[in-house]
Amino acid sequence: MSRQGLVLEKVVLLGRTFEEYARYFGLDACALQNQRVLDVAAGVSSFCAEANARGIRTTAFDQIYQLSPEAIQARCEPDLEAVTRNIALAKTYKWDFYKSPEGMRELRQRAYQSFLADYRTLGDQRYVAGSLPHLPFRDREFDVTLVSYLLFVYDDHFDYAFHKASLIEIMRVTANEARCYPIVTFEAQRSRHLATLQTDPDLKHFIFELVPTDFEFLIGSNYFLRIRRR
Ligand SMILES: C[S@@+](CC[C@H](N)C(=O)[O-])C[C@H]1O[C@@H](n2cnc3c(N)ncnc32)[C@H](O)[C@@H]1O
Fold first, then answer.
1. pLDDT tens digit string along 195-207?
2. Would you say residue 24 lies in a domain?
3. Does the residue 2 lie in any domain?
4. 110, 125, 156, 202: which has the highest count of C-beta atoms within 10 A?
5. Mean pLDDT across the stretch 137-161?
6. Residue 148 Cβ contacting ligand 1 at under 6 Å
7. Is the distance from the beta carbon of residue 23 to the nearest atom of ligand 1 less than 6 Å?
8. Across the strands, what pairs with 127?
């Protein structure tokens, strides 16, 4: 079967804004005021910068934070350019929110510019380098952990073992709940790893809940996955 979706050879360096996270994770900014938030695979998203500016104590984690701001900046525009060009050809998106690839590009550009400004000044305080499936944090150090656009959506890049180990580690450092988005692939198919996780006997102490939202960009992406302990 020919592919209809965005074809990506690698995990791209694209960042989303606070507004986008809030929409697709169903976040209530007021309720987060007293919470410690971890953004896993945060990349060049401005969520961490914007959340802290709103008084939400947020830490960002990503493998790219071992790089200098200049090295990260050099990768932002080429990745954004390639995605903006290719996404126009994909048949797996709804454009109600962004209106056009150019509209999406403007938000992504704003996100990485805000991220870079924050990373340059507070890089060593809020941005922690490392690679899943390991997290360099204490047990239950955060109340809420978010994972946007790494798990499930790239399910042809990361196998089941990676997903399972990553989620166990995420729940180790999370006191209340983790949220993952999206749970569909770039082909707009629900990730094959989801059902396996839900029925894995090693994970029976977790509750996996699909929570509907009113935000849909990839077709079928109007759900996030909430994970809690039983
Ligand atoms: C598509 S970006 C998503 C960025 C952000 N979460 C957002 O939604 O705007 C994916 C990010 O995952 C990061 N990444 C890929 N593999 C990783 C791993 N094993 N551990 C931590 N981060 C990883 C990449 O560096 C990249 O920044």
1. 999 999 999 999 9
2. yes
3. no
4. 110
5. 96
6. yes
7. no
8. 60
Structure confidence at residue 3 (pLDDT) = 76
Instruction: State pTM to two decimals.
Output: 0.96
Q: Give CA separation, 221 vs 149, 153, 184, 196, in Å.
A: 11, 10, 6, 19
Spatial separation of the C-alpha atoms in residues 95 and 5, rounded to whole Å: 14
Residues paired with 62 in a beta bridge: 129
Query: What domain range is 162 assigned to?
Result: 18-229
- Report the nearest atom of ligand 1 relative to the CA of 146: 6
CATH of residue 42: 3.40.50.150
Find the mean pLDDT for residues 5-12: 82
Strands laid side by side in the 36-40 sheet: 127-129, 57-62, 36-40, 142-148, 174-181, 223-229, 206-212
Is residue 46 lining ligand 1, measured as CB closer than 6 Å?
A: no
Name the residue of 83, 119, 150 whose CB sits within 8 Å of the most ligand 1 atoms, as the mutation to test its pocket.
150
Q: State if residue 170 touches ligand 1 by the CB under 6 angstroms criterion.
A: no
Specify if 207 maps to a domain: yes
Helices (H), 16-151: 18-24, 47-53, 69-87, 101-126
Confirm if 181 and 221 have CB atoms less than 8 A apart. yes
Say how many domains are in the chain: 1
- Tokens 């047990």 locate to 139
DSSP category for residue 150: S
Mean pLDDT calculated for residue range 129-135: 98
